[in-house]
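Q: Hi! First time doing this. I have a protein sequence and I read that you can turn it into a structure. Is that right? Here it is:
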Amino acid sequence: MSSIRLFILSSFAELGPMHGHRLRLVAEQNHVHLWTDITVGAVYGAMKRLAAEGLLREAGQEREGNRPTRQLYEITEEGGAALAALRREGLSDVWFKYDPFDLALTRLDSDALETLPPILTERLTQVRTLLAETKRVNEGAREYVGLAKQWALRHTEYRLEAEVAYLTDLLEAAGKIVSDERHPSPRKVKLR
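A: Yes, that's right. Below is the predicted 3D structure, encoded as structure tokens:
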């Protein structure tokens, strides 16, 4: 599932023909960077890829005042079908990425086990700071976006709140983890 493809195709379906600069302004005005992995500057290259795939097509040119002539694009029938599929995927597919943190936690340095609690404390501080900043930025954006976008913003907050809860619990267990790493009890190994 590609967030940038969904954003671009849905913007063309909603707003009609436009040039890349207008699409970039739409991305900025809709604050898409607050709840997606889209970088506003990436829309130009993605538009060109969508056009090469036949999901967008040239729809004329536009010139405003002394500005250079800009190429207009519009969504194709194939682009509409792709958009419908992306909308379904975006709402129904569950996206879960493993955090490298978990691998690092399971591969601790036996000579530096005492560093685990302070590292976890620092990570917890960073996530709490990120949560506070996210809430601050989102609060400023909420009055400018519709209800669905407000819930998209809140989704990030919920995820960060869950990370704070997890790290808080993990920090409480850090002493036991260090002890277990220093003196591991025999574990059953299941081989195929």
